[in-house]
## 1
Amino acid sequence: MEQILHLFLTILNLLLIVGCCVVFTNAVEHLGKAYKLNEGAVGSILAAVGTALPETIVPLVAIIGAYVAGTDVEAGKEIGIGAILGAPFLLSTLAMFVTGAAVIVFSKMKKRQPEMNANYTVMFRDLKFFFVSYTLAIVAAFIPVQPVRYIIAAGLICYYLFYVFRTINCSHAASCEHSEIDDLLCSRIFNCYNIFVIWFQAIISIAALIVFSHFFVEQIKFFAYVLSINPLILSLILAPIATELPEKFNSVLWVSQSKDTLALGNITGAMVFQSCIPTAIGILLTPWIFGEESLVNIGLVYISTIIIFLDLYKDKKFCPKMLLYCGAFYLVYIVYIVSDIIANTVKPIGIG
């Protein structure tokens, strides 16, 4: 009965996160319009950072919360590392797959064109920044000198600030025209529309996302204990699904409106953020040592991202079908994890 209750709470958290996505997506579009930013900056900075906050909070909650509450610190660190590594993996595989599938589905429903009209320059820039920052974060795990690791962590934070500066600077130089957007949801409640109401809606939706992400971490701990599974494995798969839902559902919403630069910038911008800020937290607060499960995860991130990068470099545009292929790498990892769990659970009976 207790397991059923926790399963219900997990599903409820996911539904609430989806609802928050709708509210946040609405607010971030109005923020971009208010500050005269083009869709590239809105997707890669405002939307990506806002929706990436939950997965940044998850490792902090898991690690620091374990110290404060006096619970299993090692489990907290495992969940933290899993959540940090799982986010770029899920973005470069499942999130891309969902976006590509959404384009195909909506085009079949005659709600949009089958071709994607994302800004090539914005996407290409994001992926190049991601390759550099992600590689630095991974290399840090193989450097035994702690002060050098701290320097890399600080460098990743500075690198992200440089990325934000470049993105916003390019945004002001580009066209700031926006597609038609829906009315601000909070303006209906307060019967007024100004920058304070827009920020209020954005902050409230982000706060709700953080709270529901915290509850989801607790569910991961519960099921890891009940199923006797390494919490790192569960967090590599389950934590990103909850915390990355904003990116995926925001992108689906924007794809349905043919706002492809917002949709894909939301994902690629989040990839840059995830490879800089959460990894810096991991380097500073955890042992930052990778086991076999983590290394396979990292390898699949590189393969998936390189495929997207080369396709983008060749055709100067995103191909929905190519995005579908990225989902195969997520499936490969799930099969690998399940096989590993079964192999470690079913022990051969010795003779003698």
Note: The chain has one domain: 2-338.
## 2
Amino acid sequence: MKYLKIIGTNLKNACVYFVFTQLFITAVFQLTAKEGSKGQFLMFDIELILLGFSVVMAAIQNIFKIKKLSVAVKLLIHFLLTMAALFVLFITVTGQITNVKSILFLMSAAVVIYSIFAAIFLLIHYTRKKREEKNKEYTPMFKDKEKDKK
């Protein structure tokens, strides 16, 4: 049952990723479409690639559940896996690396956007952690030995 819950959670997250990537890709296609070609739908193979990408991104998101790693390490691993998934997505959509400049531009844009979100995430995380430490009650590490002797 535990595995079914994990799979269900990953599929829900994949659906959210799919909707947002679908909206983003559709918006980009519509903004860059030639005159008179507005309103066209994405091809089915691109839809399947986006669905696969969404499932991979949902699986990558589980890195943040590992408690033994620091937040910075988790974020670095998440960044590297996300960029690898995006690179594979761009290669798959284009069929091969024919237009290196456009793939390089898209990857650079992805790095900038990820960096902005990562900075916001880290700012929120460390602000929350600092507030929790400030509100934490003090517990002495060493007991007073004289009180114990009496």
Note: The radius of gyration is 23 Å.
## 3
Amino acid sequence: MWRIAPALLAVVACRPAPARVLDPTPIAIAGHRAAPPPVEPEPAQPPAKRLGPLHRAAAFLFQPSPDAATATTVRSKLRLVAATATGERVEVGCKRGTTLVDREGREHALALRPDAVVIAPDGAAIAARSGGRVAVLALPQGRALGTWDGEDPTWLADGTLALRHGCAWVAIAPQQPDTPAQSLGEHCGAPLLSEPGTARLWFAVSDAQPRADDDARAPTRALLGLSPGQTALEQPLGGDVPMFAPRLSHDGSIVCATTQRRGHALLQCRLRDGGVFEPVAQDVVGQPVFADDAPRLLVTVGDRETGQRDLHVVDFALKIVRRLGHVAHHRFAFLPGAERVVAYDGARGLVFELDTGLVSPFGDEHDDWVAVVPDAAGGSGDSFLATRLGRPCAELVRVQLPRRE
């Protein structure tokens, strides 16, 4: 057993105790920390809606039709012609009066000398403008429904008629002349489109030149939709990139416009309500033309100075762009069904048949064609009506295409 010397014990006992140091930090009694709430992930942004990307397909290789198209005069000495796909037609003579041709081909004389005629989509009435007044007549007999002040008569899908008074647009119900006019809103120019299935008109909004919406030099910042009793809809277009000369598809779902890129005119298209603009064609000449009953578009590209240009068709359903051929024409149109393309004005007329790969000329080498309208009387769909300039007046011609077996 160990023994401690008494002397050592005395030393230890006499040593002073060390000074006590107090920690001034207060004692905190923390409870159990709750688990943090789960972090919700940011909602995934849906991809931007797109029409494309559009792809360039092999060019059409057209062959001359083995049978020629024929052009037969229907009426001469005309100043104006309006027609519908259902068979109604209004012919305004240069010297004689105005004639209404109904679906059965019967003719009715109208006491009008209009500057412009617009037929309702359902063929139930016509609006004839003359000197700031618009007369509305019921079809087929041409019974007068009334006359209103206004410009730019445009039929809406519900059978009402939109008119412009200065910059104010109103909608009237010609079948109910005692019904007050409804306000649509304000815009100083003509509409781009009367949207099918709705009572809405679409306009191009340009801050630089508000009355020059059809002028390719006026930049367009947005599309404006006006309808009776509804809040105006505005769809911005290109943001900081100036967009020019917008066009809307037949159903209003697609908008195309031109931008300038390094001195080149670039046509771009997107869904009207938003999304990504898809490049369609560069060095665009003239205005693109939509089909009346299909998501297809005609566009020409080439040199503005020399007039050399190529015609292309854009099929948005198939997402392809195809070259039709070299043309010297200035106007183009789809025939009903969008399987035939007519090139006219500037050279002998041509009809490109997309389903057969055949091309048919019509008219003479020096004919000057200025309009193409439907021909319901043709029945088979193998004919159309065209206006050929003459001196001093134009004539209406029926172009009969070769029948295909």
Note: The two ends are 130 Å apart (CA to CA).
